[in-house]
Write a structure and sequence with these properties.
With about 400 residues, the chain is an alpha+beta fold. The chain has helices spanning about 10-20, 25-30, 35-50, 90-95, 120-125, 205-220, 245-255, 325-340, 345, 355-360, 390, and strands at about 60-65, 70-75, 80-85, 90, 125-135, 140-145, 150-155, 165, 175-180, 185-195, 225-230, 235-240, 265-280, 285-300, 310-315, 315, 365-370. It has two domains: about 5-240, Heat Shock Protein 90 (2-Layer Sandwich); about 245-390, Ribosomal Protein S5, domain 2. The chain is about 30% helix and about 30% strand. A hairpin with a 2-residue loop joins strand 5 and strand 6. Helix 1 crosses helix 5 (about 120-125). The chain is globular. Mean pLDDT is about 90; it is low at about 105-110 and about 115.
Length: about 400
């Protein structure tokens, strides 16, 4: 990156993003199709977090012919005003600063899917080109980035990642490109992955996108997700919308005949956690905070022996489980053992003890928890590590 093209302010931002480009695997897991999909879900999850907070009922995902992907929502729109600490617009802060965004200390999300707030800026750093448009305050605002650097592309002939690019030198400009109705808000993010980062052949897998979109629609009742694939030249449309939530999800997952009803169990619990927070003088200090955890579980048993348990934290799938799943499995075993002991003569159990495999045979379950600032093991968010959640579940 030619350093003489940038002001000191831009350099400090780009140095942060340069670290992402040097070690992308630390942030997105890998540089193949899986890593590319992780980038896509980092952006989509920001829109889903808004929907969870009650903003926007539609998210659209378009896979373009040129290999780019575009995510559109009807949420509040990324802030466009100037953030006082950096002197940059909210859009630029979100897309160029690691650990920036509404998930840090400001309390704008009670429970969000995005973990470290690095999502948008990491995707930007690993994109050859990224375009953002925001509808807010009666106007449409736009900003363009090339490998993380804000600036302007020469798009006279067509919009392409390889067009000539001029980075901003002293001051970044958030372009005003149109007018919208006063009450219309939302964001559009389109990005082209960087061939310098991703391996040849890395592409967006339609089946994975559809499975995740379906899963998200189950977990956020009332949210519609539309996936459009234009890559073959003929657009295919897929829509997902479910009002029944995770009860419908369990029905969808269960492949065998039912032995039990579908049971839904909901509850909540409080716990305290020591977290580092910024104090008034800008230093980090440890502080004990009170948290709340909402638990929603749906179970049903069927005639087959297979077990299907899906676990989620703030609608983020945790395929490798974690403290919430440990709590669920322990409680399930404990409760059924207690029932068996109380009815041992009726069941003619003798001295045999019920084991976990006995309880989970034929079980289809969805376990979801909603907590503020979950502790995951690693940026790819596959395992929940927050210790207190186990007992609450």
């Amino acid at each position: 990156m030619p350093s003489n093209d940038y002001s000191a302010r831009h350099l400090s931002v780009l140095e942060g993003l340069e670290a992402v480009r040097k070690r992308p695997g630390m942030y997105i897991g890998s540089t193949d199709s899986r890593g590319l999909m992780h980038c896509l879900w980092e952006i989509i999850d920001n829109s889903v977090d808004e929907a969870l907070a009650g903003h926007g009922k539609l998210i659209s995902i378009v896979l373009h012919k040129d290999g780019s992907v575009e995510i559109t929502d009807q949420a509040r729109g990324i802030p466009v005003d100037i953030e006082p600490k950096t002197g940059l617009s909210g859009v630029e802060v979100v897309f160029t600063k690691l650990h920036a965004g509404g998930k840090f200390g400001s309390g704008s999300y009670a429970a969000s899917g995005g973990l470290h707030g690095v999502g948008a800026s990491v995707v930007n750093a690993l994109s050859e080109r990224l375009e953002v448009e925001v509808d807010r305050d009666g106007k449409t605002w736009a900003m363009s980035f090339h490998r993380g650097a804000p600036g302007l592309f020469d798009d006279k002939k067509s919009i392409a990642p390889g067009n000539a690019f001029k980075p901003f030198k002293d001051k970044s400009v958030l372009r005003e490109i149109g007018k919208v109705a006063k009450n219309k808000t939302g964001s559009r993010v389109r990005f082209w992955s960087d061939p310098q980062i991703f391996v040849k052949g890395a592409e967006f897998e339609l089946d994975d996108i559809l499975a995740r979109a379906r899963q998200t629609a189950f977990l956020v009742p009332g949210l519609k997700l539309v996936v459009t694939d234009q890559r073959s030249g003929k657009a295919t449309n897929h829509e997902f919308f479910f009002q029944g939530g995770i009860v419908e999800f369990v029905d969808y997952l269960a492949k065998d005949a039912p032995l039990s009803n579908v049971w839904r169990l909901s509850g909540s619990g409080a716990y305290s956690e020591t977290v580092p927070v910024l104090n008034a003088s800008g230093n980090m200090e440890s502080k004990e905070v009170q948290r709340n955890c909402d638990v929603d579980v749906v179970v049903r048993w069927g005639t087959e022996y297979d077990t299907e348990i899906k676990s989620f934290v703030n609608i983020i799938a945790t395929p490798k489980g974690g403290t919430h799943l440990q709590g669920f499995e322990q409680a399930l075993l404990k409760v059924l053992r207690a029932q068996a002991d109380a009815n041992s003569r009726k069941f003619k159990l003798g001295n045999e003890k019920i084991e976990k495999e006995d309880v989970t045979a034929g079980l289809t379950a969805v376990v979801t928890v909603r907590i503020a600032e979950p502790q995951f093991e690693g940026q790819t968010k596959e395992i929940l590590g927050t210790p207190a959640i186990k007992n609450i579940v």
